[in-house]
Design a protein that fits this description.
Chains A, B, C, D: Pfam families: GFO_IDH_MocA, GFO_IDH_MocA_C3. Four copies of one chain form a homotetramer. With about 400 residues, chain A is of the alpha/beta class. Chain A contains twelve helices and 14 strands. Chain A is globular and about 65 Å long. Strand 13 of chain B pairs antiparallel with strand 13 of chain C, so a sheet runs across the interface.
Chain lengths: ~400, ~400, ~400, ~400
């Protein structure tokens, strides 16, 4: 470990709006902290709720000027696009079923979109949104935030460099227990996440399975060809899966397993990824994100640490402080915002987005929705192997 | 923790023979240590190899009298059965394809059998052996040694007592890496374990998958109804699976996943079991066997330790030393021998085997071979759900 | 774990200046992120370096207006105090020997001071600074950042509530290895930290020992009465200690040990605290800060997690995201800034600082310098027990 | 990991007697298992208690012939020395104050002694016993059993080979909590261990501190020159220390800390050793004994495992099973017996003890008693630095 500084170069910060994320929301607050950490955004407008009073109250609490507080994302998109100092980017942090409509309003006006996952609540919507994003000059950034962890970047870099040889196995899991019982009707987070009209056909598959699925591909560099799923709703009356067992076959012959669960008692946010190749293995767990276990075949296991010996440029790029000073979930999330900012600033300057800037895109979002869809279809067909539709 | 003693009551030790386990064998030596730890057996005869010189050399090295060293298990069974002080029990530690024939020679002469797993190399043999065992007065003990770990007994007792409520999920895995490359032809262990004529149709499924499968049922108290498997031989030229992904459906609605692999680089002997019920969760890992993680739903996770606070009678029965003094693999294995000894001594005394004495039986062995068979059949049918045959 | 939101209430942010922290500095950047995370400060002025060009370059990179960039902290204090929208608070992040003079310039003009630790490089200075702080209406906040970790707050609350009974033992250590070899002369961080004219008489004792010492008292609620130290400079030519062994006697009869080292190879930032009372024990490690191990005597060890079951109000107050989503070093540091902000906003509003707002003060800073001084004196007297001077 | 066998070569087993270790004793049972594991001893005689009925009952329970059961160790020594097939070695597992007298009875008759630690309850006795041992042809083996762990042998070998460079720091601790409250008068283990007339002047220092002290020297290869101690009896009425803080100065300039405690709530048997040199660091914990953490300076930390990659001959010599199959406390203890057996068999054959055979000797025992004595003297002199007397 060396104690060294890291210099900032804060160009004029990016003017940011937000859709959703009003009072009591969970992920909206996370996005706001993430946007602040590296100082590259200023939140100046918001349609934080579709209820006017709630939108106003929430906006004022965040220090927004009253005339930049909206109760309609459409109104916000229209007006902000016309303002001289209108927002350059918008964060969409609503329940899933709102993503597509909201995003399209901004995309078509050239406002960059930073959108929470999963991309949409239906596959049809996802495909429409892909078209809209592709038709727009604006960027579309999906906040698969776990891709922002430095040791995830490290793992990805190692695999891309061949350190593991040809990949054979991808074992990924995401276990929680917060839905182990029927949700309290007052719990808004639980309510919409288990309502298929808002979250989509996937429950745990959509809420957390997509993260696991995305992370496995992000790190391994591999795409799933077919999958075979057994979905279950253990809690009586639940309309979406709260547990999913999935077997995966990747292009090139690698195999995998994905388990996601929201009823695995004793698991808080247990996203864990293990990848094994002909020459080595890697293991990482989200709850201890500064560590990456690396075993070159036939040698002792090594504990790589963020900022520590044996780590490379990809991790260092997105790391803020020295080894032994743990970075967490918010910093990983902030990295998605920082990557977005790098891309937006390049756009602003009329330059290409630098090649080292990496963030999940609308295409990754589509794959996530295809993953949910494939899980649901396979499970309905007695766990037949299915391709992405 | 309390530092307290544990008294021994060594009745006349049981006269033991061994089939297999000659020079350079792995598991034979493990059986011998296991038999010695609690002082309840005396090894006095052996057919340690079918090669006479090797049998003799191996027997002498173990201190056997020359006239109790055999090169044929059949000869040993016949002669020992006639001797006044002949063996009372035999440990069979050969490659799998020999188990059935050897076991039957002893069973039919009333000599108790302690047999390594998997039970046999074919399902046909397994069923025959079940009949032989059932027809015999002698005991049949299968060394699924992991069932001997105190914290496994603890987990089993907790689940049986309802501490976890109705079980929903059984996640079990057994990952190794010692076959990640084509085995050296000089490695006898690797050679027979990857030769289907000796090990059977399952590779990793037979060698380690059966352990995982057995342990999951032993602890959960649940039986698998159907399974769906994707088997793979990653190493070119390998004739049996070296990796298996399996989804499980248990009686009563629980679901599970089983992963076994011998190519997961960085894993030495990674048998890990996690069981989740409506009211709690348990997690255990073989490489750290003195720990059991227990989370009652809505409470903090607890680290139960062998001999420590919060552990019960089932674990204490099979524990030798106080908390904080780790017991290991050999002690767990020894417990199988001690349980066998308890049962044999009861038989010797004309008593019933005490109800608290627990060991894997020939029926468990049959289930293990059925598991291998079902995995192979399901995988051949594109991962269809199959029942045990 | 429950996934729930946490609402922000961003009043007009506090206008902040910074002394030190120019290009290539380490801790200045940390302070800036910490100040941003909760959105309660705006950095608007800086005397980031005493070299004018460097000050200018660093200020511009941070987006400061050119007329708010200074190369003299005195000039900054004078001018900002006169401005209508001048800074309300200043962060002092220079090497230790500058702290006192800089702080006094702001304190005497009623500008709140947030100062890095240790308080000063000499005990004489520390005492002077205490007087200045006491004579000022402005607040003095010392960034013993580790006190901002939620699980440290949890531990403190548990001990204060009597959960551990009377405290017997305080074992604290802070091990690093970055100075295991003679520092590269180009390493500015290493250079001033091993130069007694800049860092003070303590090396590891000052740089990290003070953190350990402070944290032990913060959590235990106990003050050291006497200590006995054995200091060593292992690296040839080093003028300050790079390792310290210290025995502690606390008021009320508790005993402790403190070890700090910058030559313990394999340790990155190993601050670890263990406290044992008559009724229970607690264990915490900075590198895994979201966990707190709690053992009530005679019960199983429990793993308390940030946001998880069994944690209380003190931790929740300073926690941002749900359990299982790790918070890190920067969030803990940000909590010091947030606590400072709460106090400053109360002052601004003419109110008392709320009683739940907790941060290290100038008095804590004095104790830290007394600790260094006592270690040096004891070690010079062959490890005699000494009191604080 | 390779799955390979390990061959036994059981020469005629050594005839063993035991002094102490009757019904309800703790350490006697441990010695018996340890003696059995590798099959090199036969327990054939015992003076298991000084109470005749208890001696008889205990002996019969262990399967001893009635004429080899004694209630006086002296009688046993005299008679066994005369028998043709009398014992060759004796295990002395009584409370400390009996060690010297018992050992001398056997030593003077040429019977090898395997004695529990600490060597004696007084320094005077220890010195006498050294003389007796030196005057005898018989071997004296002290069961500092933790030296038998394979990864301890590994650490020792690495340091001896220079892998860590010159040693700077030795941090050792041994924390328990079983005496956190006044002991139940019925607890025999607690009773004699806190009675200075039986255990000696040291409480925790004698019972566990000696283990820590011995292990630190065994691994580091260094001898303590002076120490400085602060002893405490936290439990009211306790006559011996239940906690000790000790600073150590080793020959050649290394420094160390030793902490032992029997009141650290939440610690079961927390013996932990960390050694840091100029070129690397090692960390080991008794409760997870199959792991050794090794950091070469400037490289990633490596997890060495018993039997795993990167381990050498010294560990392999005393290891029984492959990596990933945990060995525990009993196996480590058994290694002391196996080493003793190797030495005894060499003696029996008129050969030199092979140089690779390593076990703690009477000299190590003397150092342990000197350590206790020095701690007590230093503490009485207000933690002055003292030499061994």
């Amino acid at each position: 470990m060396a104690i060294t500084g890291r210099n900032e170069a804060l160009e004029g910060p990016i003017r940011l709006g937000m859709v959703g994320g009003g009072k009591d929301a969970f992920i909206g607050g996370v996005h706001r902290i993430a946007a602040r950490i590296d100082g590259k955004f200023n939140l100046i407008a918001g349609a934080l709720s579709s209820t006017p009073e709630r939108a106003l109250e929430s906006g004022l609490a965040l220090g927004l000027a009253e005339d930049r507080i909206y109760s309609s994302y459409k109104e916000m998109a229209i007006r902000e696009a016309r303002l001289k100092n209108g927002i350059e980017a918008v964060a969409i942090v609503t329940p899933n079923h709102v993503h597509m409509d909201a995003a399209r309003e901004f995309l078509k006006r050239g406002i960059h979109v930073i959108c929470d996952k999963p991309l949409t609540h239906t596959l049809t919507d996802a495909k429409k949104l892909v078209k809209s994003a592709e038709a727009s000059d604006a960027l579309f950034v999906l906040t698969h935030n776990y891709t922002g962890y430095p040791m995830i970047r490290q793992a990805r870099e190692m695999i891309a460099s061949g350190a593991l040889g040809k990949i054979r196995l991808v074992q990924v899991e995401y276990a929680q227990d917060w839905l182990a019982e029927a949700a309290d009707p007052d719990n808004k987070q639980a309510a919409w996440r288990t309502d298929p009209t808002k979250s989509g056909a996937g429950g745990s598959t959509g809420d957390i399975g997509t993260h696991a699925f995305n992370l496995a591909s992000f790190v391994s560099g591999l795409e799933v060809e077919t999958l075979c799923a057994d979905l279950q709703a253990f809690v009586p009356g639940r309309q979406v899966d709260d547990n999913a067992h999935v077997m995966l076959r990747y292009e090139g012959g690698a195999r995998g397993m994905l388990w996601c669960s929201q009823v695995a008692v004793g698991n808080e946010n247990g996203l864990r990824l293990r990848i094994y190749g002909e020459k080595g293995g890697l293991e990482w767990a989200q709850e201890d994100p500064n560590y990456l276990w690396y075993t070159p075949f036939g040698e002792a296991k090594r504990l790589l640490t963020r900022g520590g010996a044996g780590t490379g440029a990809a991790a260092a790029r997105v790391s803020r402080i020295p080894a032994g000073h743990p970075e967490g979930y918010l910093e990983g999330f902030a990295t998605i915002y920082s990557e977005a900012a790098e891309a937006i600033l390049a756009k602003r300057a009329g330059k290409d987005v630098p090649s080292e800037v990496v963030f999940p895109t609308v295409q990754d979002g589509l794959k996530g929705v295809q993953f949910i869809d494939a899980c649901v279809r396979s499970s309905a067909r007695d766990s037949a192997w299915v391709k992405f539709a």
